Give the backbone structure.
Amino acid sequence: MYSWDYSQLASPNEFGWSLGVTPLSNLSVIVSAWVAYFVVVMGCRNFMKSRPPMSLRMITAAHNLILCVWSALMCAYAIIDFYSRWKSRGFGECFCTSDESSLKGRLIYVTYIYYLSKYYELFDTVILALKKKPIIFLHWYHHAIVILMVWSWLEDANMYAR
């Protein structure tokens, strides 16, 4: 269905986002994820309607630990790249650049890993539904829109890198 190139993920220093080539880069993947997210969460809520809330203490703890470690690694990686960029190009280049070569490599790779983490974070809502916790609109909206927002950062960098 998709012709993704997983080999580009092997080298963070050479990474470049490419629409339709980088895994999960197709906009249709985001729309499919939104539909699946809604259907699964509504299905969980319907399934739990006549059942007591699930505890899920160990699953929640493991999920949160994975998110913490994942976030810490992304943060450390971004700080290292930020520092390296500051030393080699100056402070201003860390926030706004016209150098197309800086739109590929480690920082874009970390942004891509952040993008992937947004899909994993959809599981938060499934946990809430199984625990019979309220799920407010802002929660739904946040999880849905952040995937598109990070995708747009990557696609914007890709457009300037061409």
Notes: Helices lie at 27-48, 57-89, 106-120, 123-130, 137-161. The radius of gyration is 18 Å. Residues 20-161 form one domain.
